[in-house]
Amino acid sequence: MDKHMGEQLNKAYEAYRQACMERDEAQKELQQKTEFYEQKLHELREQYTAQTAFIARLLQVLLTFLGNSSGS
């Protein structure tokens, strides 16, 4: 193998290695973001459930109040 071909092979290998490192880093970043947004979605669903239950309780109190005041 001549010197020029060896240099080209080294450059190609280095480019491949760099591309693999960038791919791995992108996959890691995507995984981290996916986990972050899944956690946020879980928190928002819990918050929505709690707020829905709170609204239902308020509505029940309001209806009870309106029922008691109309009978007076």
Description:
Residues 9-47 form a coiled coil. InterPro entries: TANK. One of its GO terms (biological process) is negative regulation of canonical NF-kappaB signal transduction. The protein has one helix at residues 3-70. By secondary structure, the chain is mainly α. The chain is rod-shaped, with a radius of gyration of 31 Å. It starts with a helix and ends with a helix. 0% of the residues are buried. The mean pLDDT is 95.
Spell out the blueprint of helices and strands.
Elements: H1 3-70
Give a short overview.
Residues 9-47 form a coiled coil. By secondary structure, the chain is an all-alpha fold.
Helix proportion of residues, in percent? over 70%
Element-by-element helix/strand order: H
| Cα separation of the termini | 104 Å
Radius of gyration: 31 Å
Q: Which structural class fits the helix and strand makeup?
A: mainly alpha
* Low-confidence residue ranges: none
Strand percentage: under 5%
Main beta sheet: strand number and arrangement?
none
Count the beta strands. 0
Mean of pLDDT: 95
Q: Helix count?
A: 1
Q: What is the molecular shape?
A: rod-shaped
Keywords: Coiled coil
Coiled coil: 9-47
InterPro entries: TANK
